[in-house]
Amino acid sequence: MSTSESSYHHGHLADALLDAADELLAERGAAALSLREVARRAGVSHNAPYHHFADRTALVNAVARRHMARLLEAQRAAWHSNGTPRERLRAMGEAYVRYAHEYPNGFDIVFDPEVCSPTSPSPGMAPLIRENELLLDEAIRTIFPEQNSETLVARAAGFWAACHGVAVLSASGHMSTETAFAALDAVDITS
């Protein structure tokens, strides 16, 4: 066993591998993710990742879960910030756009249908997606308590679509984050 491997016996090898995968993802995108390269970056043997990830797909799914959890946490923090419910919903939209802009490859991997199927997300991703849906649902219901479920679902879908669209445009360099935030105001579905 190499010295570098033994330094991870305290139980943090999985985190170190995910950190290395995240660095690689940020630099070169999801196509560059491989167990061998992640092991090299983490300073462990090329077999070490197999203790935590059965194959490349398992690694990619773990990275996607990590980014989905971070995206959810950014939105949750925005919703639980100070301000009126409308201001907090707007802050959620900003958090969504900001995450996509700051972590474009991480954002992309979350929404890659080959990584996370919209119709059948993985067991690890499904609860995160559900939490995100419940958070948005709570925000919309708080702002519009008198509206029926069908209208609330449409408002939530409209808000998410607006956020996602400007997030993708911003992350790909087609608009600045400032323009993306202004776009969120221009298509405000909360009025």
UniProtKB/TrEMBL annotation:
Leader sequence segment: none
Lineage top rank: taxon: Bacteria
PROSITE patterns: HTH_TETR_2
DNA-binding region per Swiss-Prot/TrEMBL record: 34-53
One Pfam assignment: TetR_C_33
Keywords noted in UniProt: DNA-binding, Transcription, Transcription regulation
Domain HTH tetR-type, residue spans: 11-71
Gene3D superfamilies to which the protein is assigned, alphabetical: Tetracycline Repressor, domain 2
SUPFAM superfamilies: Homeodomain-like, Tetracyclin repressor-like, C-terminal domain
Protein name: AcrR family transcriptional regulator
